[in-house]
Amino acid sequence: xxxxxxxxxxxxxxxxxxxxxxxxxxxxxxxxxxxxxxxxxxxxxxxxxxxxxxxxxxxxxxxxxxxxxxxxxxxxxxxxxxxxxxxxxxxxxxxxxxxxxxxxxxxxxxxxxxxxxxxxxxxxxxxxxxxxxxxxxxxxxxxxxxxxxxxxxxxxxxxxxxxxxxxxxxxxxxxxxxxxxxxxxxxxxxxxxxxxxxxxxxxxxxxxxxxxxxxxxxxxxxxxxxxxxxxxxxxxxxxxxxxxxxxxxxxxxxxxxxxxxxxxxxxxxxxxxxxxxxxxxxxxxxxxxxxxxxxxxxxxxxxxxxxxxxxxxxxxxxxxxxxxxxxxxxxxxxxxxxxxxxxxxxxxxxxxxxxxxxxxxxxxxxxxxxxxxxxxxxxxxxxxxxxxxxxxxxxxxxxxxxxxxxxxxxxxxxxxxxxxxxxxxxxxxxxxxxxxxxxxxxxxxxxxxxxxxxxxxxxxxxxxxxxxxxxx
Length: 472
Fold this sequence. Notes:
The chain has 472 residues and is α/β, with parallel strands linked by helices. Helix content is 47%, strand content 12%. It has helices at residues 13-25, 36-43, 62-71, 87-96, 108-133, 148-161, 177-186, 208-213, 230-233, 249-261, 287-292, 298-304, 321-335, 349-355, 361-375, 388-391, 398-401, 409-427, 432-439, 443-455, 461-471; strands at residues 5-9, 29-33, 50-54, 77-82, 100-103, 167-170, 195-199, 238-242, 263-265, 272-274, 278-283, 307-310, 344-345, 380-381.
């Protein structure tokens, strides 16, 4: 059941108190107003989910209160109450924007049922807004790891997923900490709830509190409407706080409060709201060093690291690379518009990818494959489609080559051909297709010759010098 922020509006104190007591007993947060003016003042802060309002109020009817709230941009849901039931009154209330209509005296079970229905509808609408914002991050494709270290990490993630424990995920940038966080959520009892990823380093410091906990209308310049906040958006689900080491110290205190008290308070509000959210945090920094330097709170560090998972860099788990390459190729080729054409690797490409050090980890690998897919003919990636830092095919100048007519005829011909091909590619600005046209050969022939160059590196001038000395 969702915890709702409710406002009971009735000019009869006894009715307000009885209804409020019932709603609090059901676990909701409840405030009261005895007239429309007081109610409008409270509603203007924008954090009331549902107003339960009598139609007959002093100075202004409940229906006029609803109309004025809507005209002011307040999107609080209204359930209207009246002791004088009529079809016309009900129609007027619904036309004004009421979510529901009840007859006094209220049946308590029916009231709770109606509140649950209206609250669930508002929750669905809020979740749909979040899903629209996060649609690019909602990919549920899961990659199966081959390396022993990642399989052990997967096993540990599955263990902690079934609990409500906070989790701290560490590892270099680009290792896939977000994938692990989503894996934990998908295997948890909260899998049907929202998964809200947040990059703590991407939010301006003066807006972090508002983004995390929300704000009421008019709480600061530019706050022209209520913002619910990411923690309440993640209610009943998981919030993933990426780059937690970038969180300002002042916000670290408030995050600690959320973890310990399981409640949040919006900027501009005096009310705390209960929140049921699982926190998974990640960082590429050493938080223990930050604690020692006074840049991260020790108590928060201990709270976050109740369960610690470390994601090793890609260079330490090369067994994952072949399957990971295939997974990324097929997924990303569809995204790039392959029209069902299967992406593949030419001979020798996989070996180069496996042997590269990948300082940028999985993120760098994905970028390299995306670039190669764009360059490749028919989505078949060749060595020439890879960056020179990986393919080891340089584009040196004439002087760099140090071409001299020495060695056997075969070696000299090969050196000249290599020099000509690489110089033509350099003059074409790295455009292989243009270079092939200048050399009057097919593009596939050029790629084959480049592969031969890669497979048979030229002997150095020092080698030739030694060879000539031996012959003398």
